[in-house]
Design brief:
The complex is a heterotrimer of chains A (about 100), B (about 270) and C (about 250).
Chain A (H helix, E strand, L loop, with lengths): L2 H4 L3 E3 L1 H30 L11 H21 L2 E3 L17
Parallel strand pairs in A: 1-2
Chain B lengths: L10 H7 L4 H17 L1 H18 L4 H4 L10 H4 L1 H20 L18 H11 L4 H28 L8 H23 L4 H15 L5 H9 L6 H33 L1 E2 L3
Chain C lengths: L26 H7 L3 H22 L9 E2 L1 H26 L24 H6 L20 H17 L1 H4 L11 H21 L8 H34 L1 H6 L4
Helix pairs in contact in C: 7-8
């Protein structure tokens, strides 16, 4: 797979990589879980009739889920030096354990 | 965590010099801003250090150590069955001790308004219906016992199929068989205590089994069941076996079993 | 890797692949020096393995073909992780599935189904082997033993056989591929236990009892034979060329 099709790849210092991983994952988890909770509230856990659905809250839920996924996907472009781009690429040196 | 700041990296300067798109730059700036205030990464680095410290003690798994290609033999989860049955035994012991406060092994007429209900049956019914969390306590005791028995059986299979009974562990294998039998007796005596229909007729089978033993059958039936027909004596004997005799015996034998495992180590292969 | 001290005694300071203790770098230094997480992990594995090996060579522990590793911390740490999950499962099951309390004991009314707990089924099943009890023509077709006595005897034989397994099966083989025969015996035993348990509750099993009785004695040897054939085939193909290091440590007898 070429570098272009895999998207951009930014090498950051290790400490910054940790912050990126921790905070983006945290945000993604909170957003996705919150999004599903919002969807549940809006649709009364999927049991509400179509007329009773709170559209505003439902849209908010979907947006939250999307935002969580987006942030998680966006954060995946940052990597620390020495990390492989993916598991298959022979990025690591042979003496690397 | 110490008060001095560990991280001297100048993130802002780095972000400025690096060629980043505006989105990336603002994304990183926000995260750095959050990181400086919340310092969550510090806690994770504590865990990271702990991870390496633990690894310092961890040897390679046996498949790694011997370059065994066949990772199918990494049977690790099955190796925890022995410990798991011990833990289930402890859970059963604690919940059983709590149940003991409310149960009385009497075959006299009980307070529950069902025909034929004995005191033993009534106390179990009261535990299930009146006592706060009583149903959970009995449930926990029963499930822990069931799971312990299952784990002990599977543990024996694991030991058999990985050849862990071989020299120098023959004695521990035999102790294990004794423990397995004692576990089943433990379960059986407990099964009789509620004194419902199942218990009564399982007791009847027990009497018949004892009677069919050659030569000493009648003597065994008298000793274990207090006679050839079931009644107060049977219930009381089962109770004494279940809460007084077996706990001490089984705990002692488990201690010996574990001490031998501790001294001899865990047998290969993994 | 050459060292200054060239004595041949076993070194017990865990040196060799990794630097000696007084030069051990801090975690930070190590991370900066190495090329990544995997390298770091590798070094710790290597180091602890060496320490184990050195300790083993140094001690007066007699070298045997049985190697083992310590209960603490290796085994217990991993066990704790797994068992804590299963203890959680026990609590979950207890909360969701409380046990049944049947009608009170009534000696005058025999219930349709009399059962011990499930873990006694196999023993219960062995008690029902009456049809196998040989009757002798000499004593006029009478049975030598009562059926019930025969059943108790079957229990004693089974448990007794399991107890003496370590004295029958010796040697350093550990895995089923190394000992197809004993693994096949084990498979046979497990399948037999399942069938004899089903036999003990035959009025609850949706199958002709006679067929079940026959299957109880036909299927286990069949399963054992299949296990034997499979393991034997696997052994041909795989055992000797793969495990050289393994056999250097534990040469087969």
């Amino acid at each position: 797979m070429s570098d272009e099709s895999r998207g951009r790849d930014v090498v950051v210092p290790e400490r910054l990589y940790k912050s990126v991983t921790v905070f983006s994952t945290l945000f993604a988890v909170v957003a996705v879980v919150g999004g599903f909770i919002a969807l549940d509230v809006a649709t009364n856990a999927g049991r509400a009739a179509a007329a009773d659905v709170n559209v505003l809250v439902a849209v908010l839920g979907v947006l939250l889920i999307a935002a969580g996924g987006l942030v998680y996907a966006f954060a995946s472009r940052f990597r620390a030096s020495g990390m492989a781009k993916d598991k298959d690429s022979g990025d690591e040196t042979p003496d690397n354990g | 965590m110490s008060i001095e700041r560990k991280d001297d990296h100048d993130h802002d300067a780095w972000i400025q010099e690096k060629d980043l798109t505006p989105v990336e730059q603002s994304f990183l700036t926000v995260l750095v801003w959050l990181d400086k205030r919340l310092r969550l990464v510090d806690y994770l680095e504590l865990l990271e250090t702990l991870y390496y410290r633990v690894n310092l003690q961890m040897p390679k798994s046996h498949t790694e150590q011997y370059n065994l290609d066949n990772k199918f033999w990494y049977w690790y989860p099955l190796y925890s069955l022995g410990f798991f049955s011990t833990v289930a035994y402890i859970v059963a012991a604690i919940s059983g001790a709590l149940l003991g406060f409310y149960y009385s092994p009497s075959a006299a007429a009980g307070s529950v308004d069902i025909e034929g209900a004995t005191v033993a049956y009534s106390t179990v019914a009261a535990i299930m219906t009146d006592l706060n969390f009583g149903f959970f306590l009995r449930s926990l005791h029963r499930w822990a016992a069931q799971v312990m028995t299952a784990a002990v059986f599977l543990h024996m299979l694991r030991v058999y199929f990985t050849g862990a009974y071989k020299e120098p562990r023959e004695v521990n294998w035999i102790i294990g068989i004794i423990l397995l039998s004692l576990t089943m007796v433990f379960g059986y005596t407990g099964y009789l205590l509620p004194w419902d229909q199942l218990a009564y007729w399982a007791g009847q089978i027990g009497v018949e089994m004892s009677l069919s033993i050659p030569l000493i059958g009648e003597w065994v039936a008298q000793l274990m069941f207090g006679g050839f027909s079931l009644g107060q004596a049977t219930l009381q004997r089962m109770y004494i076996l279940h809460v007084f005799l077996l706990p001490f015996i089984v705990t002692t034998v488990i201690a010996i079993h574990l001490a031998l495992v501790w001294m001899q180590g865990i047998a290969e292969p993994h | 890797m050459t060292d200054d001290n060239s004595d041949d005694t076993a070194r017990t300071d865990g040196t060799g692949i990794v630097p000696p203790d007084d030069e051990t770098p801090t975690w930070r230094e190590r991370k900066e020096r190495t090329t990544g997480l995997s390298r770091l992990t590798y070094e710790y594995f290597e180091r602890s393995r060496r320490e184990d090996q050195d300790l083993r060579e140094e001690s007066d522990y007699v070298e045997r073909d049985v190697l083992a590793f310590p209960v603490w911390p290796h085994e217990l740490i991993r066990n704790l992780a797994l068992t804590s999950f299963f203890v959680g499962m026990i609590f979950f099951l207890s909360a969701t599935l409380p046990p049944h309390l049947g009608a009170p004991a009534n000696p005058s009314q025999t219930p349709a189904v009399i059962l011990p707990d499930w873990y006694l089924y196999w023993s219960f099943g062995l008690l029902k082997l009456g049809p196998l009890n040989p009757d002798l023509a000499i004593i006029g077709g009478d049975k030598l033993l009562a059926d019930r006595t025969y059943g108790v005897l079957a229990n004693v034989v089974v448990v007794g056989f399991i107890a003496i397994v370590p004295f029958l099966n010796k040697g350093s083989a550990r895995r089923p591929v190394e000992q197809p025969f004993w693994a096949a015996i084990g498979v046979m035993g497990v399948v037999f236990a399942v069938f004899i348990s089903a036999l003990s509750i035959k009025n609850l099993v949706p199958m002709d009892p006679h067929l079940l009785f026959d299957l109880t004695f036909l299927v286990p040897p069949l399963a054992g034979g299949m296990a034997y054939a499979i393991l034997k085939t696997m052994r041909e193909g795989y055992m000797y060329d793969l495990n050289r290091r393994y056999y250097k440590l534990r040469p087969p007898k």
